[in-house]
Structure formats: C-alpha cells, structure tokens
Description:
Blueprint: H1 2-7, E1 15-17, H2 22-26, E2 30-33, E3 40-46, E4 49-56, E5 67-75, E6 80-87, E7 92-102, E8 105-112, E9 115-124, H3 126-130
Parallel strand pairs: 1-5
Antiparallel strand pairs: 1-4, 2-3, 2-9, 3-4, 4-5, 5-6, 6-7, 7-8, 8-9
Amino acid sequence: MLLAGWFTLGGLQTVAHAADEPGTAARILGYWQRGEGEAIIEVTRHSAGYHGVIVSSERRPETVGIVVFRELHYDEEAGAWHGRAYSIKRKREVPIDIEVRHANQLELTAHILFFKKRVQFKRIPDAQVAGLQVAER
Length: 137
C-alpha cells in the first residue's frame, strides 16, 4: 500500500542515462502503466538522459506533468536501469532499479530502508494514449 502511492500517480520520479546502444534505451522508452485506472507515465530521452513524466491520470489529474522517474542510468552488466523515484505523497525520493523483462513489461524495484518492493508496469500502445488527454510536452 505504501508503494502503491509511490508508483501510481507520481509517487516516483526518475531519469535515465542509457548506454549508447539504441536497442537498450528503446526498451524503456514509451508509455507505462502500473494497473488499470492508474497514471500513465511517459519515458523519454532529454539532454540530461531519460526520465518519466505522468502524462495522464484519471484519479489525480493534478499530478499530470510531474517527473516520476529521475536520474536513471543503464547498467549494461546488470541489464537494468538504476535511478531514483519520487513520492508525491511522502515528498521524498527512493533508489530504484528497473528491468525491462519483455517489450511490454517492466519491473520496478524500490529500495526503502532495508525493504524492497517490486511493482510491475505494462506498456501502453501509443495509439491508446493518443485518445487520452495528455500533458503538453
């Protein structure tokens, strides 16, 4: 429950710096959602690397535009992204790891004190997001 808020509507913020390998970076790019009715997060590349921003949220529209994945770096050896997630509710960041296990699924692991919490996200097709009212980029 604690992490439900973290991973839903901007409970997290992170950015990513990928290896220069386009295929590796491309696996994390796109729209992701934790579950039905939850916020949709878009992961894109910027000059400072990659980050994830809430682009749509039916339950908490005030969270649209908040960066939720920040400072992500791709660890080629581990095959995972490492970075930080921001909790809007708790107003603090936690370290995270993200693994893109399949083209349409990623697993985010948050490290909170001595505990780990894993959360699954599914990819949302661009066409599905195009029909939603999303934040200006």
